[in-house]
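> run fold NB-ARC domain-containing protein
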Amino acid sequence: MVKEEVEILKLLIGEAENSDATLSIIPIVRMGGVGKMALAQQLYNDANVSSCFERRAWVCVSDVFDVLNITKTILRSITELSCKDKDLNYLQVKLKDSLSVKKATNFERHIDLETIGKKIAEKCKVSPLAVKVLGGLLHNKWDLDEWEAILNNRMWDIPTGKNDGVLLFLNLSYVHLPSYLKRCFAYCVVFPKDYKIERDELVLLWIVEGFLDGQKRKENNLRLGRNYFDELVSKSFLQQSSVIASKFSMHGFLNDLAKSIAGGTCLNSGESQLVRNEDDASLVKTHYASFILSWSVTSKCLRASYRMKVLRNLILLHIESSGGSKFNISNKALYDLLIELNYLRVVSLCHCDIIEVLNCVGDLKHLQYLNFSYIDIKRLPNSIVALCKLQALILRGCQKLFMLSLGITKLVSLQFHDIRDTHSLNKMPLGIGNLKNLIVLPNFDVGIKKGLQLKESKNLSYLQGELVISELQKVQEARDAVDANLFGKQGLSNMFLHWGEDFGNLWNDKHEAQVLHYLRPCTDLENLTISYYGGAIFPSWLDGPSYCKLVSLCLRGCPNVISLPQLGKLPLLKKLCLNGLHAVRMIGSEFYGGKRPFSSLTTLKFEEMLGWND
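> ok
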């Protein structure tokens, strides 16, 4: 079909170049089995087509024509976000809005906007930052009235100095933000100037502050918060770090703007300033505080904070350049601090050199967010069971943590439990399935007999993002994998299924095959890793086209497997890694699954395939 491909390619590119062209439908009609879908995929992935169309969507319509699911698929393809709403009208409005943003971006078709845009740029020429932020605000607005409202705002006429003028321009941008973004932006002032923050760290704080409470279902909050964050980045209110791509910060002028909005409710301070501010009467009004601390913290350093009787957020920050990788805070200083501040909702003590969490943390009845990441604690106190409002418990990078308190299973409000990189933690408490509101639980380690059972994950239906299930060789009943209901956990995008590396499971390959067969994940999955699996065959669900969104697949350390699934059918698969499949003797045509296999593949690795003869 080379001739047809070239002809259709010309039609597609010709329409893209003619912005006034009427919307076209290009049908591909032939008898079944001759490669119509393969041709469509080839055209969809063609580099020329990609460069011409900024928004593209791939939809496969089955014999059952379901308008709701088709709309969801198009919306998901365009926005790269999962969508669980069942209101067709709402989804179609969302789709219309998503497409209208990119409908026509050349100013030749918006000559009036170009004229106004030049006038706005002239007014704020003293500040490139103001131009950038205003541009981010207006980039997806095509209503002439909105542009004129910015141009004719009386704020331009206020006489100011250079720096004050920049703040006025930025305030003009802030005023025109949607209300849901205003409070999210203003909250960023809890972090000091130039501090680098991760997206999900800030989003979790927004959630516990109630900024996203308008949503009907809990499982939407994390996704919604990430959308808000990305929107602030696109409008230049937050900027990505040039050194660490996962970190973001706020420009100094924008930080000043956020401070002016927050009034006297927020304090950013170093320890020397804290000592000087001890008698400051305004401290009693402070709701949010972050302290930049160096190597050693004493009660004297934090004495000023005792006056903050209505303090809701306490964040202790350590900048590595100030000396050492952690800072030391004495038990007395921490105890004195916590017993004085009874209204705390957020406590973050990352990178502290402490080895135990004091029991008094259980007295913080209003606490909703607790972050002890990268500290050397070995266990949590039993008093944590009293934190009935706790929504987020972050223990990332606690290398010496070997045990979670049994009381954690009674924290029924808990939604986010991050235990990534806690390599000494090899046992999870029985009853984790009681935490039915959990949205984030990166790790699930299967126990034996009286330990945590796989079937306990049945009730964790709100899980999103990444899930690592380890020690699967300990699953005694294959039926437990059915009860786990991974297929119903539609919010998961990354999944890792790990058996033990000691290969003790290799002698029962039929049991292993059953377990993996029943561990079928949701079809929205984008990344999948299966490692140290002892079965002789991979499950049939890997053969079919159901996992059409899969981008990365790694099959590692499975020495009993004798054949490979038809992976060539996966249309979006970009990365495929096959490692340690010693029993595979040959790779035949069934691996490719058609005449045009692996249409999106960019990385292919075969490693340690010791039995491969072909």
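The first helix runs from residue 2 to 17.
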